TrEMBL record:
Family classification: Belongs to the SPCS2 family.
A GO cellular component entry from the record: signal peptidase complex
Gene label: KAFR0I00510
One example GO MF annotation: peptidase activity
Keyword line: Endoplasmic reticulum, Membrane, Transmembrane, Transmembrane helix
Organism of provenance: Kazachstania africana (strain ATCC 22294 / BCRC 22015 / CBS 2517 / CECT 1963 / NBRC 1671 / NRRL Y-8276)
The protein, known as: Signal peptidase complex subunit 2
Subcellular compartments: Endoplasmic reticulum membrane
Amino acid sequence: MSKPINVYSISEVALSLDESLPDIFGRLDYKQTFRLIDQKLIIGYSIAIVAATSFILDKKFGHNEVIPYQTALVSFYFILSIIFWYFKKYVEKSTVYEGTNTKTGEKISVKTSYVEAEPFYNFVLSNSKGKSLNVKLEINKVFNEPGFLQTNLFYEWINTQLQTLDAKKNE
């Protein structure tokens, strides 16, 4: 069993629920895909490579020799940082899980959010059929009083939401 969390800290609750999603969806025959994570890593590593190149150039050569290169590298760093910010804000948004059903091939995306000092955790479930479902999870439904996540209850809740999503008509 995992260690208990402070159920009055919504950020701890959110972290615990987000970390349990791959296991829950794995039990529901979904395989996690890492498309967004891979893209974010590529952008992040590119930023690190540009910064490292700038540092190495500055250490190896004289200041006056590398000014044109440093200008280009700083510009490139700035552009990559803007791309990274855009990716986090508008592409990834608050997506915490993406997966594909191993039996049907259906894709699912889960976005989560919370409002500080409210005992609800907001879920947006979207599938490849264009259906979307916004639901709120009451924290006390899946955590017991000492602060342990009741994974079976969370599994049943997610399963119910997926069935509701499948039964939903296209919007």
